[in-house]
Amino acid sequence: METSYTLRKSPSRMAETPHKIIQCIYCGKRHEKLKEKCPAFGKQCKGCGKANHFINQCRASLHQQRKPAVQAVYKETADSEEYEDILGLTLEPAFQICALKKSTSKFSSALFATMLIDQQAVRFQMDCGADCNVLPARMVKDQSKILPCDKILRMYNKSTLTPVGICKLKIRNPCNQKLYQAEFVVIDSELCHPILGSRAIQAMDLISVQHQNILTVEQDSKQSDSAMWGWSTINKEYADIFQGVGCLEGKLKLEVDALVQPVRLPKRKVPVSLLKPLQEELASLEKQGIITPVERSTDWISSMVIVKKPSGKLRICIDPKPLNKALKRSHYPLPTLDDILPDLARARIFSVCDVKSGFWHIELEEDSSYLTTFSTPFGRYRWVRMPMGISPAPEVFQRKLNHALEGLPGIRVIADDILIVGEGETDVEAIKDHDQKLRKLLDRCRERQLKLNPEKFQLRKTEVPYIGHLLSAQGLQADPSKVKAITEMPRPTDVKGVQRFLGMVNYLSRFCENISDAGEPLRQLTQKDAVWEWTEVQEGAFQQIKSKISCAPVLKYYNPEEPLELQCDASERGLGAALMQSKQPLAFASRALTETEQGYAQIEKELLAVLFGMEKFHQFTFGQTVAVQSDHKPLESIMKKPLLKAPRRLQRMMLRLQMYDACIRYCPGKSLAVADTLSRAYLDEGSVEGSVEHQIETVNMLQYLPISNRRLDAIQKSTDKDKTLQAVKHIVLRGWPHAKELVPLEASPFYHIRDELSVQDGVLFKGERVVIPSELRSDIMSRIHSSHFGVEGCLRRARESVYWPGMNAQLKEYIDQCDICRSFDTKQQKETLMPHEIPTRPWEKIGTDLFTFHGHEYLITVDYDSNFWEIDQIQDTRSTTVIRKLKAHFARYGIPDTVCSDNGPQFISMEFKEFSMNWDFDHITSSPGYPQSNGKVESAVKTAKRLLQKAVSSGNDPYLALLDHRNTPTQGLECSPAQRLMGRRTKSLLPMRGSLLMKDHGMNDRHQILCTKQRALQAAQYNRGAKDLRPLNVGEQVWVQPPINQGKEWRKACLRAPAGIRSYEVVTESGQVLRRNRRHLRGTGRYRPQIRTQSSNQEEYNTDETNQPSIANTPEEDQEEPHCEISDTERLGDDTNVLREQPQGYRNTQTRSGRSILKPAYLNDYVD
After folding, report:
1. Phi first, then psi: what are they for 858, rounded to 5°?
2. Integrase catalytic domain location, by residue (predicted)?
3. What does the alpha-carbon distance between residue 546 and residue 424 come to, in Å, rounded to a whole number?
4. Does 241-478 match 559-699 in CATH topology?
5. Which of 408, 642, 758, 766 ranks highest by number of CB atoms within 10 Å?
6. pLDDT band at residue 60, thresholds of 50, 70 and 90?
């Protein structure tokens, strides 16, 4: 049976019903509301020993049994009836106050009230600490009333919750039938229950505090003037210095080392969900004058890094590592505590404040501002004010701040802390002196536009921590927080804990002679057969050692002339740090890891320990170079890499470290005994608001992944089933061995990227890229290549979001095997030049080809040695006609050793083959569809066409033009084609001495030398962008590029046999046999049985070739044409059995489909 109460406000109502029956909270029984009627009045509790209540109602016993699951309203444990009067608790059956379900007491600290929403009773919990009303989404009948909102709820345990939205509903109090309209934050959670916040509770008169019954303390009248000028007055009078962004006098010029090469980093992709908040934050910074857009080109462009604050807003930073390598630092000496101690002799009252957004107070010169340019999705911006992270920032800020506050009495500045001291013989005098100095400081801040941080203002303290010490009227004292990690260190619970503690004692024994002797009782516990028993002897030794460690001579006083060292270590559940100089400790610190932090990867824990130490000892480390010692070697390499290559959680830590000059170096764990002991015997303290983990725990790597929840769930499940990734995850969380040989075989492919690996929600990450399990890699590759982009495009896309060992090679192989991509491939790159051998005499090697000009057919014959060519007009292109013209030339100049041609039907016919055998010369054909292999002739065709075209257009005799061409010296060879062929010039229409027409017998030797040099130069120039393709193997599956006039789609084929250097015979899927140059074939590395070919009379080698191949790579007319490659051609005679015989003239043929092709009737009158 629940007991009903109501909370009322007015004490007058209580006076009207003095004898009302209540359920007494002191005895547990029902009686009149008079203390004389309570049987517990005057009695002593057997549980806590206090008076006026029984043990069954004792709050102390209840608190020991369990902790309240929600925020308790009753914080005090008053034992008199005054407690009831303050809360104004009266009996009335309207609202219910119920105990928690698990409570065994009749009374609970959880307050509940039943209200009506749409005639439906809803039981609300009344939470005096809640700032808003909360309602589960299931209780909102009309979902359309829910409006979106950007609020984030912070729970009592510091966790955060994102609501669905907000809605306004009408609720009715069933007691007085009053109707209220309240705004609720809607939460989509089954575990959430309705909550009424403090404002609603007060507005509905559900609970009140009787202020008239609360004892107040009157202040001394002598201090009333100072009390009136308190924080509220200061904040009101000087509100302008606590708002906005300040600006100190003078602009900063950044000095750059000219020897460092500028770096332009590309812009990074930003998750779509952050684009709008990012744009808003950029606009806000631009409006405040912190940044401004950049329109002109800049030498330096840094990467932008965005950090999401716990409030949901973004912080924009830059990755300054490349820029810091070029910036010169101005080393400004910082004042020390010893410098200001003489001024604190009569100090009694102290205040400490610091500057708000200190670095933004310093304006950059325009040229220096362009050095800080950074790229965003919305364009480039530059910092108008000094950004956080650049190396000169701490010294520059310290110098500017000292200059702004110089001359103020009683004001001291060390690092970024401003100290105000009040001096006097009494507190009253000191407060008066302090307030005068504080007012002068605030006036100076207003004058110099210096903005202070109101949240960190410590006003009128008799004792303040400052630079690692406590300042008070009694003098300078050591700050207990420096040694708290030692003085409050929990005692060891096992032998290993004792061994770690003694290791630290042994390390510190060099600074205290008797400290080792004090540890003898502890050493007895570490002996081999010793029984674990922690007695008073061990406890005394343990406390004695801690006392010795936490004071001189073990604890050293800070010396600003000596370098600082910071030992850091992280265990599974704690962090430890020790600040040292000359190996002697200055201060100790440790803390427990939160539940979230315990799930961090080991590298994240280790860097968190570094950040914890640097920020814990901020008074010492700020503005100083600190040598950080860590036993986690990957920290060295990750700190040298660009910020964006690190996982997001490490990025936040690294950003916070940017304000310090920390150099992390690896040290073996045995040399870090102090930090190791502190990290394992840590203080069980939670973090405070605004500390590291509040900004780091909120990092959710999965939040910005552009994948669905279903896909994410599949990755998580596959990762759990992947043995390799499970092994890697275990090592990442526990820490990597120092040598690769100690890493399990399955995890060794990840060793080289160990410093970039992290784990979150069961998913393994490399930086911001998801490590894909093996069973999903094929599916991921198909998704990456779904649009059939090229290799580089797919690799760029993959490198943004996914990773696995060997991903690049596997993805390339996957794309190489894509039939669609291969069929629409572009042409392959050119191979290196394989020039013809330089002939030893004229007319040793010739080339021939046919071309058409103004409707007439022509035969051109070129000498490879002299570049002398003949043109013959022919009536048809039959073999007999071509042979007859060639015989005429051979009779005039002699029979050559080699004749080169393309694969036209007139050159591969039986007649031409018999002609080559009867006249005793070798016939070489070029690769079909590759005229470059017969480039000498193709170049001559182009020159001949141009010569004929100009002669026809000008009306000149083409034979005179041909004569002039033969007598024109070739560039680089000092002689004309006629001289190289005949050894003399030929007479032309130009006047010429007779001696010039005589034979020159030394011409051939000079020509050979010049020609060799020219070809070497041509080959070197051609080979700049060329690379040889790998040889293909018989049986390999290949893709064949079609000729220019037959489309762009490549076809599958199988390589049958080589047909010379860089020339191959292939069989298509239809059984067609083709001969192609290597450049027209793309290998796959896969093999299959050769396709059965058609009958030999249907094998086809040049069915896709035309009689007039295209001309390419033609030099100027007055230059020697390059002798292009022909070594990929095939010599006739040896392989005639694979060539299709071409009949003389026309012959009836049959296609593969069986269709007959007959000779046209109008050709019947023609004879061969």
Report:
1. -130, 150
2. 838-999
3. 38
4. no
5. 758
6. low
* Nearest-angstrom CA–CA distance, 785 and 18: 84
Q: What is the pLDDT of residue 478?
A: 63
CATH T-level topology, domain 709-816: Endonuclease III; domain 1 (1.10.340)
**Parallel, antiparallel, or unpaired: how do β-strands 291-293 and 302-308 relate?**
unpaired
The domain made up of 241-478 has a fold known as: HIV Type 1 Reverse Transcriptase; Chain A, domain 1 (3.10.10)
Q: Looking at the DSSP assignment, which residues form a beta bridge with residue 103?
A: none
Interatomic CA distance for residues 513 and 553, integer angstroms: 10
Give tens-digit pLDDT for 93-146: 222 223 233 333 444 457 888 888 888 888 888 887 788 889 888 888 888 788
- Superfamily for the 822-985+1002-1168 domain: Ribonuclease H-like superfamily/Ribonuclease H (3.30.420.10)
Show me where the domains of the chain are located: 6-212, 241-478, 487-548, 559-699, 709-816, 822-985+1002-1168
pLDDT in tens, 758-797: 888 788 988 878 899 999 999 999 988 888 888 888 998 8
Q: What letter represents residue 170's amino acid?
A: K
- Letter string b/e over residues 753-781, b meaning 16 or more CB atoms within 10 A of that residue's CB: bbbbbbbbeebbbbbbbbbbbeebbeebb
Distance, in Å, from the CA atom of 1015 to the CA atom of 58, rounded to the nearest integer, reads 107
709-721 helix and 723-734 helix, angle to the nearest 10 degrees:
90
- Three-state helix/strand/coil letters over 344-362: HCCEEEEEEEEECCHHHHC
Tokens at 80, concatenated: 């008199």
Residue 1, Cβ neighbours under 10 Å: how many?
3
pLDDT higher than threshold 50 for residue 680: yes
For tokens 């809605």, the residue is 167
Taking only the tens place, the pLDDT of each residue in 464-508 is: 887 667 788 776 666 677 677 777 788 888 888 888 888 777 767
Torsion from C-alpha of 25, 31, 35, 40, nearest 10 degrees = -60
Which fold is adopted by the domain 559-699? Nucleotidyltransferase; domain 5 (3.30.420)
The DSSP code sequence of 511-573 is G-TTHHHHTHHHHGGGSTTPPP---HHHHHHHHHHHHHHTSTTTSPPP-TTSPEEEEEEE-SS
Amino acid at 810: Q
Residue 917: which pLDDT band, with cuts at 50, 70 and 90? very high
* Cβ-based neighbours of 261, under 8 Å, separated by 6 or more: none
Residue 1141 confidence (pLDDT): 37
574-601 pLDDT, tens digit per residue, is: 898 988 888 888 888 888 888 778 888 8
What letter would DSSP give residue 208?
-
What torsion, rounded to 10 degrees, do the Cα atoms 936, 941, 947, 949 define? -160
Quick one: how many helices (H) and strands (E) in the chain?
A: 35, 48
pLDDT digit string (tens) for 866-900? 889 999 999 999 999 999 999 999 999 999 999 99
SS (H, E, C) 1030-1072: CCCCCCEEEEECCCHHHCCCCEEEEEEEECCCCEEEEEECCCC
Burial class (CB in 10 A: 0-12, 13-18, 19+), 951: middle
At 996-1025, the pLDDT tens digits run 677 766 666 666 677 777 777 777 777 776
Residue 1112 contacts residue 934 (beta carbons within 8 Å): no
Q: What percent of the chain has pLDDT over 90?
A: 15
Strands (E) across 631-681 are located at 661-666
| Superfamily name with CATH number, domain 6-212 | Acid Proteases (2.40.70.10)
Q: What is the DSSP string of 381-419?
A: EEESBPPTT-TTHHHHHHHHHHHHHTT-TTEEEETTEEE
Sheet holding 802-803, edge to edge: 757-760, 763-766, 769-771, 802-803
- C-alpha 57/C-alpha 45 separation (Å) is 9
